[in-house]
Design a protein that fits this description.
It is a single chain. The chain has 249 residues and is α+β, with helices and mostly antiparallel strands. Among the domains are: 1-41; 52-79 and 225-249, no CATH class; 81-104 and 200-223, no CATH class. Helices cover 20% and strands 22% of the residues. It has a two-stranded antiparallel sheet with strand order 1-16. A two-stranded antiparallel sheet has the order 2-15. A two-stranded antiparallel sheet has the order 3-14. The two termini are 77 Å apart.
């Protein structure tokens, strides 16, 4: 009886040990598979990482690997030229007349700005030579006709024998008051009509001249400084951010 009990005890002990051994081996097998999987993943990752970058990246189809693309210039809308404001006239198309300084009127060059000039008839003297005595102040006696004696040989009582008498027209001075200037010796300037100023000959009284730089338009067509007249510029590719390559996956 004692032997049977001992045998049963040993059998039960052996059965438990076998179950525990199976469980332990199963756990070790699962751990081994996990470790193997991790090592396999690391090995594959190492191989892939050692490959060239062409495996991960491909050439950008937008810039074809250049990193930049050619686009139309925004500054000139692709024309290569821009319309800017003229600096000389500040966009007005006209500039101040350099001769009259923008006033439109200048001093009369005929009278010097005083509004009158010397009389053309008497040359500024105010008097003219008497047309009756021609400046001599005396004329032939009308009674004796300058002979000094009458028809009978007697002394002319009008000229007292001199044959001349004082000119009644100029009172013996030989000069008359100028009819043109009324004795003032000057007359209104014909060029400025007495104003002393005339319209500027360069700007015709407007005070400004057409701008020669822009032809009066106030605008200038210049070469675009952004694209240097080509109408196109090179910009960074937005797809690859200038790298020339994009991710393959």
């Amino acid at each position: 009886m004692y032997c049977i009990n001992v045998s049963l005890f040993c059998l039960n002990l052996h059965r438990k040990s076998l179950v525990n051994c199976v469980i332990t081996m199963y756990s070790l097998s699962r751990l081994y598979n996990k470790v193997l999987a991790w090592f396999s993943f690391l090995f594959v990752a190492l191989i892939i990482s050692s490959c060239s970058s062409d495996f991960w990246y491909k050439e950008c189809d937008e810039c074809h690997g250049a990193g930049k693309v050619t686009v139309s210039c925004d500054a000139c809308d692709g024309d290569g030229e821009r319309i800017v404001e003229c600096d000389d006239c500040e966009g007005k198309g006209v500039i101040e007349c350099w001769f009259c300084l923008g006033h439109g009127r200048v001093l009369c060059n005929n009278c010097g700005g005083i509004g009158y000039e010397n009389c053309n008839s008497c040359w500024g003297r105010g008097t003219k030579e008497c047309t009756w005595c021609w400046g001599e102040g005396k004329v032939k006696c009308s009674y004796c006709f300058g002979k000094g004696t009458d028809l009978w040989g007697n002394l002319c009582y009008q000229c007292r024998g001199s044959g001349f008498k004082i000119c009644d027209h100029c009172s013996g001075t030989g000069y008359d008051e100028c009819f043109s200037c009324r004795g003032t010796g000057r007359q209104i300037c014909y060029r400025c009509s007495g104003n002393g100023h005339t319209d500027c000959d360069y700007c015709y009284g407007y005070g400004y001249l057409r701008c020669s730089s822009c032809g009066g338009s106030g605008k200038l067509v210049v070469e675009c400084d952004e694209c240097e007249g080509e109408g196109k510029v090179r910009k960074m590719c937005e797809k690859c951010k200038g790298k020339g390559q994009v991710k393959r996956f």
